[in-house]
Specification:
The chain is of the alpha/beta class. Helices cover about 30% and strands about 35% of the residues. It has two domains: about 130 residues, Transcription Regulator spoIIAA, CATH 3.30.750.24; about 100 residues, predicted glycosyltransferase like domains (Thrombin, subunit H), CATH 2.40.10.220. It contains six helices and 14 strands.
Length: about 250
């Protein structure tokens, strides 16, 4: 039995209704059975919060997660997505094995953008400063059509929210350039619900791509986009190989 296997699993939830935040504390060695029970606690916590709620996950005392925990991790992530989570922050040391495990996991499927910090103080400060930007950013690699002044080209999504996106594309565009983006967020079939043509404005740019904010994008279209992004994350086929503990 390894040292990691002997470390008790600690899982706690704390709800801050005033700040609309859910704080999760994960310590020790994570097991599948404990994580399944933790999922129930998280559901009760989310029920007290409003859409756009933030999540802080404190992993500073966590040292290892068994491979069998991956489905439960995915289930928790899907539940947060379905309930319109906003900013997500993880507190952890980059020297910890769990940090490498999480990076290995998230590199293999679509997910959401996470801020990594080294202390709870940094996490709280980040969220206090990010209150104006509560839309979750989905990390999805997807081709996107780009039309600028009648000329069409393509790029690749880096991340996207219901209010804007970042795109990898050749060549810089001047700030404030108005463009049209074409996205097919289905499984290959271009249905009306999955196809988006969005007017956008470039907010910053460099030689590798640019960031945009969406213009004239209705609440109903934002909701439709959010649902499509959630489905892409939830239905994706994925394969995972986690690093071994002694690496």
């Amino acid at each position: 039995m390894t040292i990691a296997d002997q470390t008790p699993c600690l899982l706690k939830t704390k709800v801050n209704i005033k700040k609309n935040r859910l704080q999760l504390t994960v310590g020790g060695t994570i097991t599948e059975a404990r994580l399944d029970a933790f999922y129930t606690d998280i559901r009760f916590g989310v029920a007290d919060l409003q859409p756009g709620f933030a999540v802080i996950t404190d992993l500073t005392a966590c040292n290892y997660a068994h491979l069998s925990c991956v489905p439960a991790f995915r289930k928790i992530m899907h539940y947060l997505l379905a309930n319109k989570v906003g900013n997500v922050v993880r507190v952890m040391s980059q020297q910890n094995l769990i940090f490498r495990q999480i990076l290995n996991l998230t590199a293999r499927f679509h997910g959401y953008k996470v801020c990594y910090v080294s202390s709870m103080e940094e996490a709280e400060q980040y969220l206090d400063q990010a209150q104006h930007r509560q839309q979750l950013r989905f990390c999805i690699r997807q081709e996107v059509g780009i039309t600028v002044a009648g000329q069409r080209t393509t790029g690749s999504l880096i991340d996207i929210s219901t209010s804007g996106c970042a795109i990898e594309a050749a060549g810089a565009l001047p700030d404030a350039t108005e463009i049209f983006l074409e996205l097919n967020l289905g499984d290959g079939d271009k249905t009306e619900e999955q196809l988006f043509v969005i007017k956008a404005e470039v907010t910053r740019s460099d030689e590798n791509g640019f960031a945009t904010k969406f213009l004239d994008f209705s609440d109903s279209d934002q909701e439709r986009l959010h649902q499509c992004l959630v489905k892409m994350v939830q239905h994706e086929e994925w394969k995972l190989i986690l690093p071994q503990q002694d690496e």
